[in-house]
Design a protein that fits this description.
Blueprint (H helix, E strand, L loop, with lengths): L16 H4 L11 E2 L11 H13 L9 H15 L8 E4 L2 H12 L5 E4 L6 H8 L3 E4 L3 E3 L2 E3 L2 H11 L3 E5 L11 H13 L3 E5 L20 H4 L2 E5 L2 H4 L7 E4 L3 H14 L6 H13 L1 H25 L4 E3 L6 E5 L7 H11 L2 E2 L1 E2 L10 E5 L4 H15 L1
Parallel strand pairs: 1-13, 3-4, 3-7, 7-8, 8-9
Antiparallel strand pairs: 2-10, 5-6, 9-10, 11-12, 12-15, 14-15
């Protein structure tokens, strides 16, 4: 079937964080929000039907998954990402950020250091600091419009700070890099050399633009699989974030046991019933829907690329290789960060993500969520162009 991603679905009045909580989050009412990373598209019809069927059953007791759930997940990653997983590796959690926090607690002690690559998804820093860990950043280098890794600094930071846990973001949020096999191998070999566990957040792995290919970190080699926790979820891919489901793959039994213990200490046990239903249905029936979505998002990217070039020349769009997030450089205006934010909010009437929240290297940047109908994206870009005048 054909899906209509041009359909504008009104999310206001549904307790939607993106549209209904401006006042509670200190923002003016009436802004066009393109900040939080969920999509303005309906999930596949087959997923909706599965949820309706489960709801009509009428009993929402404790639930878990059987082998058909694992087979749906495993088949998806085998065919989409050439990643063959075993049932014993799977650990289900309510989300990737929850899993990230559990990994921080499982593999480090209070006062120890955790390594991140900034600018990066802000819970990497927040979850570490909230658990009394020291955050060590190795800053990505923006060179000729593309971010690169400073491998000398990467090794130096691991060695000097006795890093035991590296938080990898691949594809990288917010800068849009899809790390190459060679880049991942180099980082992985350094982590192996110094006895560092790698928590690889691959939640955006299904959003890859032509010319690039996602490489699962744990599939690089058996040695690197042995030090890795691969975090995936259908939440970004199929717009299911509110149903709280993630799938981790942990080949090393000792690493899995340590993570299980931390999760047990929280009191958490069974998953959200609807999360299990939606995840299995999405991985079984969402293939064609995702293919059409990726094509639509490529069209959105083409629109944004042309618009930035032709009408937003003081800004520089960083060409994304993956994710549905656009990262653009506003430093050409010569504004301070607060002034740049004021321009977005008060002049453009847009609610974007302030680049500074992603840490060092994010100052002077903004992030746009382009996973919305093209008319919405165009309206946002027009507002930005008008504000520049």
């Amino acid at each position: 079937m054909r899906y209509n991603f041009d359909e504008v679905v009104d999310r206001r009045g549904t307790n939607c964080i993106k549209y209904d909580f401006a006042k509670e989050r200190g923002m003016p009412e009436g802004l066009l929000p393109l900040w939080v990373a969920d999509m303005d598209f309906k999930t596949p019809l087959q997923v909706i039907d599965s949820l309706v069927k489960s709801a009509r059953h009428g009993i929402f007791g404790y639930s878990d998954s059987k082998d058909d759930y694992f087979q749906a997940v495993a088949n998806w990653f085998a065919k989409r990402h050439n990643y063959d997983v075993k049932a014993g590796w799977l650990k289900k959690t309510p989300g990737v950020v929850f899993a990230l926090t559990m990994a921080i607690r499982a593999y480090t002690e209070p006062g120890e250091a955790v390594l991140i690559q900034s600018p990066v998804y802000y819970p990497f820093t927040g979850c570490s600091e909230d658990n009394d860990r020291k955050v060590i950043g190795t800053q990505l280098i923006l060179k000729d419009g593309r971010y690169e890794i400073d491998f000398d600094d990467f090794e130096k930071k691991i060695k000097e700070n006795n890093i035991r846990l590296f938080l990898l973001c691949n594809p990288h949020n917010p800068v849009g890099r899809v790390w190459t096999k060679e880049e991942l191998l180099t980082m992985g070999q350094l982590c192996k050399k110094y006895g560092c566990v790698v928590f690889s957040d691959e939640i955006h792995c299904d959003f890859i633009f032509p010319g690039h290919r996602h490489q699962v970190f744990g599939a690089l080699s058996s040695d690197l699989a042995d030090i890795s926790v691969i975090a995936t979820a259908p939440s970004k891919t199929f717009n299911l974030a509110g149903l709280q489901i993630a799938n981790l793959f942990i080949p090393n039994p000792s690493l899995k046991s340590a993570l299980n213990l931390e999760i047990k200490r929280t009191g958490f046990s069974q998953m959200n019933t609807m999360g299990l239903v939606s995840c299995q249905s999405a991985y079984e029936h969402g293939w064609d829907w995702l293919d059409q979505l990726l094509s639509y998002l490529e069209g959105n990217l083409n629109l944004a690329r042309d618009f930035f070039r032709d009408r937003l020349s003081p800004f520089t769009l960083i060409e994304p290789e993956g994710t549905y997030l656009l990262w653009f450089d506003g430093r050409g205006l010569g504004l301070k960060q607060g002034e740049l934010n004021k321009l977005m909010i008060e002049k453009a009437n847009l609610w974007l993500d302030d680049g500074a929240i992603f840490g060092p290297g994010g100052e002077g940047f903004q992030r746009i969520n382009m996973a919305c109908p093209r008319s919405t994206l165009l309206a946002a870009l027009e507002r930005l162009a008008l504000a520049l005048k």
